Amino acid sequence: MSLIETIDLCQRYGERDILKNINLKVDKGEIFAIIGPTGAGKTTFLRLIDLLDSPTSGRIYFNGIEMPESGRRRLEARRRMAFVLQKPIVFNMSVYDNIAYGIRLRRAERRNTNQKVSSMLDMVDLSAYKNRNARTLSGGEAQRVAIARALAIEPELLLLDEPTANLDPVSTLKIEQLITSVIHNYETTIIMATHDMSQGQRLANRVGVLLNGEILQTGDWRNVFNSPRNKEVARFVGVENIIGGVIYPSISYTGFAPIIAVPK
Questions:
Q1: C-alpha distances in Å from residue 47, one per residue of 54, 94, 193, 234
Q2: 56-103, pLDDT tens digit by residue?
Q3: What pTM does this model have?
Q4: Fold for domain 2-227?
């Protein structure tokens, strides 16, 4: 069953169409990567899925239920999601208190909070930093805190916006290892946006290519990268030799109809 489904989802700012007719299904437990260049509309799409913004038109379904523009049902759905931004936001408090923040808002018992935060600190390899002010951390460390804080509330859907953007190779590796650990140890559905095609290959079950506000192709990354649907996708995934042409069926005396490609 789909956890997330969008139907004809559009978003416009002023006279500019940011997203155009996005139709997408993401199943429970799936790792789906939206890949596309900067400015393609990836962050806008994630903000709509997280119900932070309302679309200009179209519908969003969470766990089979259409999301209204406001009200209790929308708030309840948001509480089942977590969003980690491209530039991690950490509060002016200890690493421990940052991770515990969402749990405390849900009024969990203190003993359960301690257990959960300790588990998250171990997972992100920051136990030694638990009493340190989170704003003194490096970018990669702050991103791990943000991911741990998101996971601490046990979301059904985790949204990641360019989780390794502007990080050094060592920090990028640690974040990808952390995401891999989440994939293996939790049943969390993940939708991540990235401009890094190889990252989508490494981490996702399925990818969608978002170019100029439209999802032009989805599928297993091997199919997308080896059989791009059109010239735009082919150029984005790095196909160098693109030959234009028209495909015509031909008639054969053997009864078969071989395909002939005629260059333009």
A1: 9, 27, 11, 27
A2: 999 999 999 999 888 888 989 999 999 999 888 899 999 999 999 988
A3: 0.86
A4: Rossmann fold (3.40.50)
